[in-house]
Amino acid sequence: MEVSAKKIALFDAVIALIEDGVDINTLKVSDITNRAGIGKGTAYEYFRSKEEIIIQALFYDVGQRIEKIRRLLRQYTNTKDRIHAVFQWIETDARQKSSFTQLFRMANGSFEFSNSLKEEMARQEGYCKEINDILTAFVEAGVAEGVFRREISPVLQRTALLSQIMSFMIYFHQEDISEAVTVEEMKDFLYENIMRMLG
Amino acid sequence: MEVSAKKIALFDAVIALIEDGVDINTLKVSDITNRAGIGKGTAYEYFRSKEEIIIQALFYDVGQRIEKIRRLLRQYTNTKDRIHAVFQWIETDARQKSSFTQLFRMANGSFEFSNSLKEEMARQEGYCKEINDILTAFVEAGVAEGVFRREISPVLQRTALLSQIMSFMIYFHQEDISEAVTVEEMKDFLYENIMRMLG
Amino acid sequence: MEVSAKKIALFDAVIALIEDGVDINTLKVSDITNRAGIGKGTAYEYFRSKEEIIIQALFYDVGQRIEKIRRLLRQYTNTKDRIHAVFQWIETDARQKSSFTQLFRMANGSFEFSNSLKEEMARQEGYCKEINDILTAFVEAGVAEGVFRREISPVLQRTALLSQIMSFMIYFHQEDISEAVTVEEMKDFLYENIMRMLG
Amino acid sequence: MEVSAKKIALFDAVIALIEDGVDINTLKVSDITNRAGIGKGTAYEYFRSKEEIIIQALFYDVGQRIEKIRRLLRQYTNTKDRIHAVFQWIETDARQKSSFTQLFRMANGSFEFSNSLKEEMARQEGYCKEINDILTAFVEAGVAEGVFRREISPVLQRTALLSQIMSFMIYFHQEDISEAVTVEEMKDFLYENIMRMLG
DNA sequence: CATGAATGAGGGTTCATTCAT
DNA sequence: CATGAATGAACCCTCATTCAT
Questions:
Q1: Which terminus, N or C, of chain A has the lesser number of Cβ atoms within 10 Å?
Q2: Which residues contact C152 (CB under 8 A, 6 or more apart)?
């Protein structure tokens, strides 16, 4: 799974462009290669098509983010800290509108891409599964710790947990957080919700 | 806000195409007009660009759906019935992958469209706001009814409510609902969650 | 087999370009459409690819030439006149380097084109066959007339006849007809050859 | 006229590719260098462009073939044997569709190559001329031997000779030699034709 | 109004050529 | 010398938009 420097440069360019708010569907190859500081033709030494570049860039990015959250979660020994770690991660990492969008889309499979590339996604050993794995581990630890009720089905537990995580994402994603709810208030509320649902 | 028959025909064509699973980004004008049974040039008598057609079609569709859920909610006098009515609506109306995707995207503003058309969206008096209004009315009724705690901030109440609605959408949206959780179990669990969080 | 005016315009453009000495392999779509006096995109309303345009243009041209020689031959009642008619036709019609080349290639199947289009050629009911038919009719008439020996195999008769026709083509095709042989001398020699071989 | 090993390797690669049926117009530099087993850049140490490589490769190949037929002809002391030697050479050497095609094209100058390289061809001291030389020597020997009539113009004699040689080439080149004419019958017929025309 | 034939700007992709190693 | 990674000019094709009928 070694990835060449040029590939990384292209991935980073795609991510940077997306973070800049460029629509993923209007991305031009020249935009990407210019941003990556390489020639247009060079991209085709490493990828067979524009779509391949973009898809793989997204997977690369999501993979990195997942790895980060995994490492993060390993540092904490109790559920409360882990929940707040996730919130913290969202605040710092998933805050950007664009990358959040991508991750979110992955989470519910609503990627809009040429059908021919949906196969590619299938081949990629689904990050959805990875997210699910993380949630599963999260919930199991909570049960083992005794803070989550054992009798609730794991699926339901994951659903409940994810619902509050998504709520926090949407909170950050909203254009105008006009009505006065501070980040801390929101975090407390969502944490309490999780405990009410699963505790 | 009178809308001509030709416009409706084009809107319906766009919606039908999306429901058929056609990627919104690869929609061609000729696809739309063919489906609508009118000439390609005719579309430009009513709209200034392809994007205008699609955007307005989506708004038209979401508007209809929102109107439907509004009428539906008016039929019920208590919160419990209203919550189940929403679940029922998701089961019947928002089940299709595509239309759900559109609505969902609208709900969190993650439309991916050429920036030039984001203004158009802004001009459209945000359906997000309408969704928010519905949630607000929902929550207020719950408080008036005495089943939701008055001391929770309305923003938080809406957040909690939406989180469980989204969970139900995702439940239907998942490709493989492999693990055995029946629809009824899920609905009960989500309803209980709402009551635990807000009751 | 009705052919639209636009198609004809494109065919004529291709032929004209070839007659001008443009290499068939370096022909650009824009060259063709410019010459035809139509927009680049228009070509794709009538053909699916550049190769399709060129291939069909060549077949169209060869078809016309064959039709012409056919009509021509029908006007004459004896073999001698027919042979000279063919020479005459070569002098006026097949003189151009390029069109000769095309015809010639067809005659021996040495078209160099993307393999994917060889099928197209196959579908076209071989003009090679048509050329063969003309030769066959030619020879049969000669036999009936009593100027060609009946005992020679038709294949051999056609071979002999074609060899002298080709010789005349090559005579015109040569860059420098340095050594003094007049057209009339050549025609007489070739005619005599045919009679010596087949008479 | 010393030719380096690398050049030969490239020439051989081009020839091999052509014999494999690859279209000369779609030949890529990388195809050639890969086949030759050398680096892509190396080709440009010896040639200034792709076309130069291919053109020179073709000349190299034709030169070799001509040399071979020359040696072959020197072995025979009478015209009849020489004619059959040529037929034999066509059967063994010029049988392949591709190399035949190249040679044939050379013979009538119908090379399709970017005009810029036609000059290159001119500079190459025309192999057409060499072929012509061979034909001239052939005819002169026939006259000296007394089997060809002295009063026929050398140009005409060469024309007649070449016409039957070409006929034999076309005979082998035809896809389907469906109609029953054996190689021997054809050779006899063509030999007789030559004698009837020139004897 | 309605149409669809015509258009050409735009962008993905290829591949001959270069040049730093 | 030899290499092959990098390059970008070139070109095919798509499709949103226009406009004559």
A1: N
A2: C198, D189
